Amino acid sequence: MQEDCVRLDGMTFYGYHGVRPEERALGQRFVVDLALYRDVSAAAASDDLRDATDYSRIYREVRDVVEGAPKHLIETLAVAVAERVAAQFGGRAWVRITKPGAPVPGATGAFAVEVWRPREP
Q: Which of 24, 34, 42, 119 could anchor a disulfide with 51, C-beta 3.0 to 4.6 Å?
């Protein structure tokens, strides 16, 4: 099977994920980068939007997970996003979730987790 790639990068959402009580009460931004590996030959051949991957639908699926039920870990959140997208659209999903404002003493950067679903055998 051919694996082409559809990417949605820099999707930013507000969620209430984290271990600390203040993270769950106040919330924070999460940035999601996603690559969906699937065959795009039909869309390329027809040049018809009906044969293409619906980016707005992928965005809504990701938003529903990130803005949905709180998770303690961004690992859990990343797997939930990747599994949902892979299940809804087929193919393999790579997801990176970045937490720009992680409350870690002394940290000035962002923290991120990357996952693939489904995993290759």
A: 42
